[in-house]
Amino acid sequence: MEPIELSGAGLTPLTAVGLGQRRTPVRLGEVARKRMADSAAAVTEIARHQPVYGRTTGVGANRDVLTSDPEHGTRLLLSHSTTGTTPYPRDVVRLGLLIRVNQLASGGSGLVPEVAEAIVRLLNEDKLPDLHRGGAIGTGDLGPLAELGLALGDVIDGTSALPLLSSNAITLAECCLAYVEAATLINVVPLVGALSHVAMRGNAEVYDVRVHEARPQPGQVRVANRMRALLAGLPLAPARIQDPFGLRAFAQVLGPAVDHVDTLGNALRVDINASAENPLVAGGTVLHNGNWHAMPIALALDSLRLSLHSVATLSTSRVANLVDPDFTGLSRFLASGADASSGVMMIEYVAHDALAAVRSTAQPATLGTATLSRGAEHHASFAPQAAVLTTQLLDALREVLACELVTAVRAIRLAGFTPVDLAPASIAPWLADALVALPPVLADRSLRDDLEIARGLMTQWGDRQVEHPAESA
């Protein structure tokens, strides 16, 4: 496979994730190599005449301590490699190294190109170092990048340790993976919601273009467009003049999540191509700065999780409606068989258990505070923690949506609707998929396997028809 050139520009979160997952060979471009060499020569000359943070000084509260010790960089890597004991997943490490090379290629670090090429060799030979969580709070992935520096060996000298650490590359990798998962899952929600609409014979007036022209919130408009396409021509008369919130406010609740996943994707696109170095070598000078602060990423993650909490809440409300004869005209809990059968009664409990996990992980990480290094550093974004919470929330949200999907398909079976009955609506083929995948047995039994099937089905659907809004804009 021909190596992909990393140049410090043009990398998108989706492309980066794809390169990492396929283990595509990469290389440092010649232009980037020269850029790095020129930057390294410039900072070496500058350091002869003025202090340069981390290169001729200590770090943190030791920023005012000058040093010419050739072992300074080694000691910095050794001390800063203090982390927790939990390793990062291999896909996060691989993607993080790829992102760090791309950032270095922009030439703002003052590192020699041999450092980036050493990381490229680790990637291409699949000799990934073991990197560990702990110590990253959104002001640079100091611990894991120090571990990377130690793994690079002699290519890191006494002046290049701090520049290597001046990045959130590992956190950005975790964020990119979460972004792709979130974008994929968000695009599956309308399919699940449309099946609930069919099961409850919802009123499609809520998606009328005039409704959304009257309040043109961007994400809401896009969701309404999608739902109109899925339900257009649905030959079922609506059961009510006005539906419950789970159907009536569907676009208004999912819309903000669409907007926030766009925001996250755009923020990540900037940072994975950024020369967010401290100090920054630019224009023949050295600029000490705060570009290591990951607040844009942390806020985007927090906002996305809060919006997805509402999506999960509305899904559980649809589950509640689906088990209620007043909204479906079917049996209580969609039961079949002997009197007092429970049907999908336990589905609601599973959904609310998962919703509780969504709720707990939706708490904003940016509410955290930190005062470190004798007060030299008294703020942090906690973007790494926000990334972990987002990954956990997405898994719980998938469980909530699986509960809705299993319940909606069961209601459609009991109602006797078939994909042929729903034609020409675009939701008909998706219903056909679900009817084949999910067991038709309606007698009381454990639905655990059904939920697992539903989770897998949503993954297949996401892989088949994902649109990543922030990257197609």
TrEMBL record:
Top-level taxon in the UniProt lineage: Bacteria
The enzyme's E.C. designation: 4.3.1.3
Entries under InterPro entries matching the protein: Aromatic_Lyase (IPR001106), Fumarase/histidase_N (IPR024083), L-Aspartase-like (IPR008948)
Species per Swiss-Prot/TrEMBL record: Kribbella italica
Protein name: Histidine ammonia-lyase
GO MF, any single term: histidine ammonia-lyase activity
Keywords in alphabetical order: Lyase
Pfam families, per database record: Lyase_aromatic (PF00221)
Signal peptide limits: none
